[in-house]
């Protein structure tokens, strides 16, 4: 359609009503950091969040690519839409009355926008029809099923607007079309009737089924799930896709769960409607259900906007089908969980029970379920449990299968701290309590994680942590990393410079205590936060392995005299050169040893890979030689 010129009053009212956090969080996982929210920029590829959203200013800005603007600009860029198109969609979303500068076009636009409103009305009337039918004689079996089989109280039945679709082929059709006079085309578009395959006429989509309304985030009915009361298949039947309903973007009970998700700072995701209803009935109201399809990234992002800690718990069935469903869900959202943007846990209820069955089979089911939630393992621990399932580590073939599964899992972790932790965790499992074997398996895992599987794999090898053996190199690296941390802590105006240059050069802090401190700084840092030092002290206080190091960093003396920005930038560049040179030299030596121990005739792919890496690293080192390194820069003069 041709979009009209909008009246300034409409534009201003849309700007006043929209919330940039709500808009951006549909596309980006945002975490609270100081006064802002941060996430991975949707406009360029990055591994470390540089995209910030400021709710008080209703603005976004990316320190990586420079993208910036308000909520309207964001939607224009992300969807390649015009200004008028975005404002019209937002006006409809936030129910802002529409005014245009061309009155003759207003009717045309309102007609387009009112199509959805008519569908909302038809679906709402249908929901009332089903509710009424449940309490009539023809709905007696359905009501008894809810009370006796599902053990639901009347208030729960009413809260979820549960109903019954009569068994007749045209009962709803006659009600909506003949009695209510709704257009047949709209009733069909709402997914409530279907054309007959032979002859003329229509028949009801849902017949003799217990009806569960599916609502949008605002609590408006948009579709239905129908549960068969007989042996008819399928057991559960959902509405087809409509202008109101997209199965992959909708979550059952989110409209009722969102406030509780905020309160508990976590959300429980179950498989079935009645799992969610049973948990809500038991007072566990931070629960939603997927709709029979694979859990999608879009659904996850909807949930994460309500939890600051990004806490999500999958509670799918514990049988083989449920485990496969959990695996599929993890696969769908792996880009977010492997990068550490989601705090995901997995709950499998003992004895293969689902949430509904568990709650109803225990007198204190709610309390016991809460205990299971608290004990639910992190998704990585759950994945490792699945790798170990029915495996005997005393048998060589089983041991090899487990080890390979662990390596495959660990190779997908992008967070260095997380990876280091789980390397040790897996090594302890493989050692089976034998302390003498722990070091061996630890080294073996690290070696396999560094080894390429194909000619093109492991391109990011300069970011692999390699143990330093040379004392001089170790001291140089330690000094360079220390000075970068000191400048970062005490000179806020240089924080973004250090962050950007580390990212640009693909460098990380190599010493373990420095990596821990750096991660803490990123977790608490905000460009305008003047309390970073005190926050760092509080966060590190209980970590004995780095607390002494932090105290030295906070007691800053060495370069306080250099207030000149250009001087500090020179020191930063020199320190980065030192980091780069030491890492390259260690990696170069590592590659040289590797290719010299490989028989090129037996393993030509890996031989050529390590040889090429050795040559490439040596060339990079030579290119750095003319540059002034940290060791050549007298920062105390």
From TrEMBL:
Annotated keywords: DNA replication, DNA-binding, DNA-directed RNA polymerase, Magnesium, Metal-binding, Nucleotidyltransferase, Primosome, Transcription, Transferase, Zinc, Zinc-finger
SUPFAM superfamilies: DNA primase core (SSF56731), Zinc beta-ribbon (SSF57783)
Any single biological process term in GO: DNA replication, synthesis of primer
Catalytic activity: ssDNA + n NTP = ssDNA/pppN(pN)n-1 hybrid + (n-1) diphosphate
Pfam families for the chain: DnaB_bind (PF10410), DNAG_N (PF08275), Toprim_2 (PF13155), Zn_ribbon_DnaG (PF01807)
The EC number(s) this enzyme carries: 2.7.7.101
GO molecular function, one term: zinc ion binding
Zinc finger (CHC2-type): 41-65
Cofactor note: Binds 1 zinc ion per monomer.
Cofactor: Zn(2+)
Toprim domain boundaries: 265-350
Complex and partners: Monomer. Interacts with DnaB.
Free-text function comment from the UniProt entry: RNA polymerase that catalyzes the synthesis of short RNA molecules used as primers for DNA polymerase during DNA replication.
Family (UniProt): Belongs to the DnaG primase family.
Domain notes: Contains an N-terminal zinc-binding domain, a central core domain that contains the primase activity, and a C-terminal DnaB-binding domain.
Protein name: DNA primase
Organism annotation: Crocosphaera watsonii WH 0401
């Amino acid at each position: 359609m041709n979009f009209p010129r909008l009246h300034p009053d409409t534009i201003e009212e849309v700007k006043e009503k929209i919330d940039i956090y709500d808009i951006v969080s549909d596309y980006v996982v945002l975490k609270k950091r100081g006064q802002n929210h941060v996430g991975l920029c949707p406009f360029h590829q990055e591994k470390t969040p540089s995209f910030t959203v400021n709710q008080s200013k209703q603005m976004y800005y990316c320190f990586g690519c420079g993208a910036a603007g308000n909520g309207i600009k964001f939607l224009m860029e992300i969807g390649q839409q015009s200004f008028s198109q975005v404002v019209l969609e937002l006006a409809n979303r936030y129910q802002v009355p529409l005014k245009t500068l061309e009155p003759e076009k207003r009717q045309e636009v309102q007609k387009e926008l009112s199509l959805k409103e008519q569908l909302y009305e038809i679906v709402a009337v249908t929901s009332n029809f089903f509710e009424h039918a449940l309490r009539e004689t023809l709905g007696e079996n359905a009501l008894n099923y809810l009370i006796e089989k599902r053990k639901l109280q009347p208030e729960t039945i009413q809260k979820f607007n549960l109903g019954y679709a009569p068994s007749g082929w045209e009962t709803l059709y006659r009600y909506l079309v003949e009695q209510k006079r709704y257009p047949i085309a709209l009733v069909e578009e709402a997914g409530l009737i279907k054309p007959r395959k032979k002859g003329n006429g229509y028949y009801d989509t849902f017949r003799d089924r217990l009806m569960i309304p599916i609502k949008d985030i605002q609590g408006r009915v948009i579709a239905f799930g129908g549960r068969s009361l007989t042996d008819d298949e399928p057991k559960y039947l959902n509405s087809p896709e409509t202008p109101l309903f997209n199965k992959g973007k909708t979550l059952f009970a989110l409209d009722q769960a969102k406030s509780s998700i905020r309160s508990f700072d976590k959300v429980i995701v179950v498989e079935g409607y009645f799992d969610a209803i049973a948990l809500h009935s038991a007072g566990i109201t931070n629960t939603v259900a997927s709709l029979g399809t694979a859990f999608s990234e879009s659904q996850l992002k909807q949930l994460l906007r309500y939890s600051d800690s990004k806490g999500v718990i999958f509670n799918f069935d514990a049988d083989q089908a449920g485990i496969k469903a959990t695996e599929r869900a993890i696969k769908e959202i792996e880009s977010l969980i492997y990068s550490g943007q989601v705090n995901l846990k997995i709950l499998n209820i003992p004895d293969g029970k689902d949430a509904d069955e568990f709650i109803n089979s225990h007198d204190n089911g709610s309390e016991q379920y809460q205990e299971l939630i608290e004990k639910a393992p992190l998704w990585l621990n759950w994945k490792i449990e699945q790798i170990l399932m029915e495996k005997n580590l005393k048998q060589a073939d089983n041991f090899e299968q487990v080890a390979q599964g662990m390596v495959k899992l660990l190779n997908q972790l992008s967070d260095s701290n997380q990876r280091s932790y789980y390397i040790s965790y897996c090594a302890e499992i493989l050692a089976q309590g034998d302390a003498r074997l722990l070091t061996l398996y630890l080294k073996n895992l690290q070696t396999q994680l560094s080894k390429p599987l194909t000619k093109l794999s492991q391109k990011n090898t300069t970011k692999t942590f390699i143990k330093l053996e040379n004392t001089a190199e170790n001291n140089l690296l330690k000094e360079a990393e220390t000075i970068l941390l000191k400048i970062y802590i005490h000179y806020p105006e240089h924080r973004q410079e250090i962050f950007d240059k580390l990212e640009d050069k693909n460098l990380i802090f190599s010493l373990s205590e420095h990596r821990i401190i750096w991660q803490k700084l990123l977790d608490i840092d905000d460009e305008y936060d003047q309390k970073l030092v005190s926050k760092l002290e509080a966060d590190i206080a209980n970590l004995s392995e780095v607390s002494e190091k932090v105290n030295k960093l906070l007691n800053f003396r060495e370069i306080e005299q250099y207030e000149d920005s250009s001087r500090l930038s020179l020191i930063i560049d020199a320190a980065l050169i030192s980091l780069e040179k030491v890492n390259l030299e260690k990696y170069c030596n590592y590659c040289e040893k590797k290719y010299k121990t490989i028989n090129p005739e037996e393993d030509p792919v890996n031989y050529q890979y390590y040889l090429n890496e050795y040559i490439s690293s040596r060339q990079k080192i030579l290119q750095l030689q003319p540059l002034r390194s940290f060791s050549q820069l007298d920062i105390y003069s």
